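Usage example:
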Amino acid sequence: MESFFVRYRNLLVLLAILLAQIIGLAMQVRRTDSGRNSLDPQDAPGVRLLRLWADMVVTPPERAFHASRLGTVGLWQNYIDLRHIREQNQDLQKTIDRLRLEQASLLEDAKQGERLQALVDFQQKYIYKTLAAQAIGTSGSDSSRVFYIDKGADYKLERDMAVITPDGIVGKVRDVFPHSAQVLAINDQTSGAGVILETTRIRGILRGNAAGRPQIVGILKDDRIQPGEKVLTAGGDLVFPRGLPVGVVEKVVTDPDRDAFIDVIVKPAAHLDRLDEVLVITSTEPRFPPEQQQDMAMSEMLKGAQAAAISEANKEQKKASEVMAERLPGLTDPNAPAANPASGQATAQPGQGATPPATTPPPVPKLLHPQHPDRFTPAAALPPNGESSAPAGQEKKPAPKIGLKPESKPEVKSGPKANPPPAHAEGKTQP
Amino acid sequence: MSLLGADYRRDMGVHSYPFLVYALTPLAALVLQAWLPRLVRGYTWFDLPLVVTVYFALARRNPIQGSLMGAGMGLFEDALTHHAIGVNGIAKTVAGFLAGSVGVRIDVENHTIRMMVTFVLSLLSSVIYFSIYRVLLGLSLEWSWLAELMKAVVNSLIAMVLFPLLDRTQVRD
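Running the assembly step on the lines above writes:
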């Protein structure tokens, strides 16, 4: 017996190690209701302990590497490579001014949207608070698109918080350690984010493929989806706020497993392979944060100031044009009589002997008379020569009323107190 | 078989290393494996823990040590991912065991042979990883064989550079 163990010692040790790991694997996988196997999203305490140890071993050197790299890059960028920084600063200032005006113009739409959402009892979540963090490491595996950030439970990070950059969404916090956190990127095969195509409003689920490219899966074939269309977050996954940029459609391919479905390959807006600094959305609220409200107020103020400046500029321009008109004699006739504001009234009252205006009156458009006028023709009851259109010896009958009952037809009284019926109701024209 | 192997190892000579090399080299491989992909824009076409495992298993000519080192490195790698812990561990355990077994039988001083062993074991490790994930665990995982082939080639190139450097740290009897 002893010789057996000695003889097959290597193989026995190998089998023991493999068996222990297989048992450990079996404890981490569970069968779902649909009959498929799945990893437990919440790690067991033992598994989490292993991850915590690995993180404690790897994170400090990664921080040191990252800090030294940042120091070197910062030394170069902040002290040596400062050419054209003044021009960039001016360009950025112009961009800020332009964006402030755009923001102020969009503010009313946003407020209206809030009111409408309140009416339909829909709570739109806005990004209320973010926390900047540095990406310091990865999983080191192609099949696991996760990375580590240098903020953890010490900054009150929690699981499933959204991670973004100013360009677009990046992923969500999967696990939180004391001084770091693991972020699951959107191009991982197990990730899932609710997205919507901006133009076609088609919704889908975004996840990664084997090549690490994000793709929208589970969409029926639709010819309207074209490359270049923007993809936004749909807001229904309770992780990402609605409307954040995800990327643009790169191409559409047929689902290899289901012919009726397509996979929409998305070019991510965020540079997932060059992440340095990310923002963790630590809080979302159904209103704008104070900083943004203050910024919008400033934008409105600036917009008002700019409008006043534009109005003042118009006035100045008007004054300048008047001065120019006075100084240029060719523009006015010195022999022409002064314009009389009351000339119109004088023209209307020729019996009072008012002087007719020197300027020619504007031409009055003449109405063309129809060859076969009917009761719907304008001024059909009044021929050009003032004669009645009815034949001789025939009384002019009122046209039937439209929409009025016959018994409700009011009698026309000739007295001064009688109110004349409206012309359209009686088929008569007023004299 | 193992007795023959032990005699043969004695004849071939078993390399030994300072404790710091044993401790720091695997640690450095794990840290660099986690950190370097950030510099190379996410292209994880290398597996430094596997290369180090193969090197020490070949140099020590001991399948048990190779298995233990492979298991440790693989479990550590698994712990850094969000996948089940043990998949990489099993793959690298087998790779370490085979490397140690091969070291008993062939001349591992030859750089070409070590490169070829690294290439084959890298591919084998990928196959085992994929098989465990898809067959044993029944989980869905898309796979790119081109990427795995590239990884095996890059691992061989790394081995060509790294093995001679580590050879210099050997303790000469």
